Amino acid sequence: MDEPGLQYPGEALRSWLRQFAKTPLAEPTLKLLVVLADTVFFASLGREEGEATRVRIAYHAQGLQGLQAVRETVYVGGQKGKRQAWETLPLEPKSSITDFSVEALVKLAPAAHLPRTAVVVGPREGKLRIQGLARRVEYTEFHAEGEEDVFILHAPEPGHLVVSTQGREVFRYEQGAPVPPGRRVALHDLLFHEDSAVRSALMESCATLVESLPKVQPLMGGNREWYVSNAVQGLIRKMAGLHHGGLIALLPKQHDVERFRTRGKYVLPPEQGSLLRQRLQRFVQARADLINGAWQAEAGKAADEEEDPELKKAAAEHDDKATESDFQALVESIGQFTAVDNALVLGPELEVLCAGYQIAIPRSGPPQVFEARTLQGRPGPHYPISQHGSRHRAAAVFANQHSGAIVFVASQDGPLRCLHRPAGKKKVLLWSLLLTED
């Protein structure tokens, strides 16, 4: 890596953080991050049992104990409470197992190849040591106390490095150099922020579904629109997590869906295609029964005083967990269809139409695409979509042909992207997206 313009990832990270970090980091912390970055990078080039190593570590200055001390805010029965943000599994401090090295990471990395799971690294006796495994409880919208001291270093592909803190990517390294953040936006913001053009299009497409959902008292931001956005986010995360590449196309409201049922390679019958929204409705109803009932009990408004309130609450909690589990399992199964070549197509109201839908690219090629400068969709410079493969070109064609549609595309070796032509507009917009660490 002595060629001009190429840097080791650790030194690139040091320079990047000195220039762009909102809060300056102390030199000892920078030195540790340099070591961590280079070790993760070289571990990503290794192979275990013939498979490429996807390494993810969590670093805290106090190691495993520091992670255990991180607390986040949640709503329980309408009241704010605290919970441990990381579930941890300690490892005995045996040097052969816990020495921090490329070889040790290659061996241990498969144990952390689960959602939001990482190998925990921290100082012990003046040296960096592997101290255990940890799984991050799914992020809420609240800032977790102590999360600013946690750094996640992740190698999604061989030779790549991503550094995150507080659930946000702060650095990316590919092909021997840091990747400028440009105008990348968080997937969460694109789907949940009220100013997002994509969220507005999604809510318009799912307007009837949103109205059918019961109103829920505030629970981790859980209004009715939140649950719809969360369902779509689950599909996209599954697609990205497969590391296969994929395409998800969501049609706008009042769109003819029969042509997709006839042309898709794998077609779901209507009763199965509506299963996603049905399970979402059952889940949100169970959540409403639990939360709204808890609020009533708290206010002394229990409707049936003869029935034990604790039993009612336990039954409601069971229904809530069971319906959420059923819904999440279905999201995982549907997201798995993105591993099939061509597009997974969803109609209005989250109706699953087909998988393996081939999008024909005209001889003239894909349409012009413009980088979105803002969540609201203000057009920026022309984006060279033809530099990508057929999947990206197909996504641009679909977005252009179906005004108001939303298309998410993932490649094996690049960031996630969203394409959308707002209703009544002529330009296809593209957002390059950031994922919070899984």
- β-strand number: 22
Helix segment tally: 14
Unreliable segments of 5+ consecutive residues: none
In CATH terms, what is the fold-level topology of the largest domain? YojJ-like (1
Multimeric status of the protein: single chain
Structure description:
By secondary structure, the protein is α+β, with helices and mostly antiparallel strands. The chain has two domains: 9-179, no CATH class; 183-434, DNA integrity scanning protein, DisA, N-terminal domain (YojJ-like (1, 3-Layer(aba) Sandwich), CATH 3.40.1700.10. The protein is built from 14 helices and 22 strands. Strands 13, 14, 15, 16, 17, 18, 19, 20, 21 and 22 form a ten-stranded mixed β-sheet that branches. It has an eight-stranded mixed β-sheet with strand order 6-8-7-3-9-10-11-12. The chain is globular, with a radius of gyration of 23 Å. Residues 310-319 have a biased composition (Basic and acidic residues). This is Probable sensor domain-containing protein. Residues 27-134 form the Probable sensor domain. Residues 298-319 are annotated as: Disordered.
